[in-house]
Amino acid sequence: MNIENTKAQMRKGVLEFCILCVLRDKEAYTSEILDTLKSAKLLVVEGTVYPLLTRLKNDGLLNYRWEESTSGPPRKYYGLTEIGKTFLTELNGTWTELSDAVNIITTNKSKKS
Fold first, then answer.
1. Which of 34, 37, 16 is nearest to 95 (CA)?
2. Model pTM?
3. Residue range 102-112, pLDDT digits in tens
4. Distance between CA atoms of residues 49 and 32, nearest Å
5. Is residue 81 within 8 Å of residue 60, measured between CB atoms?
6. Rounded Cα gap, residues 9 and 13, in angstroms
7. InterPro entries per the record (predicted)?
8. Are 44 and 51 in contact (CB under 8 A)?
9. Is 85 helix (H, G, I), strand (E, B) or coil?
């Protein structure tokens, strides 16, 4: 079994949730999203994030707008739609339940009856 593959799959499983959380309070362009994820030690590459942003937009969870940049080409700023905000609220509840369950299991000392 390849541990790196398993670790990558675990990260991919929470990436959508993390991106929505990054956009919870403000719009951001892709580089800002990547920087936020990387600063949290969630290792991702542009090639993973761009298709995910497109899928989230196509699913109606994100919208975007173009803004001129003083240091290069225009930037595409992503933000949550109303549907995206509702979806994120649902995911937050699921994340709490899942996180609690995993913490119980991973910190449970073996007790033999």
1. 16
2. 0.84
3. 999 999 765 54
4. 12
5. yes
6. 6
7. Metal_resp_DNA-bind_regulator, Tscrpt_reg_PadR_N, WH-like_DNA-bd_sf, WH_DNA-bd_sf
8. no
9. helix
Q: What angle do CA 48, 50, 53 make, to 5 degrees?
A: 110
Of 103, 105, 85, which Cα lies nearest the Cα of 95?
A: 103
Q: Which two tokens stand for residue 107?
A: 């910190």
CA 96: distance to chain centroid?
Answer: 15
Length of the chain, in residues = 113
* Structure tokens that stand for 95 in this block: 């994340």
Measure the CA–CA gap between 102 and 25, rounded to whole angstroms. Answer: 27
The pair of structure tokens assigned to 14 is: 């929470």
What residue type is assigned to position 19 of the chain?
A: I
Q: Which two tokens mark 36?
A: 């936020």
Q: Which residue has the tokens 């899942």?
A: 98
Q: Per residue in 30-82, pLDDT tens?
A: 999 999 999 998 878 888 899 999 999 999 999 999 999 888 899 999 999 99
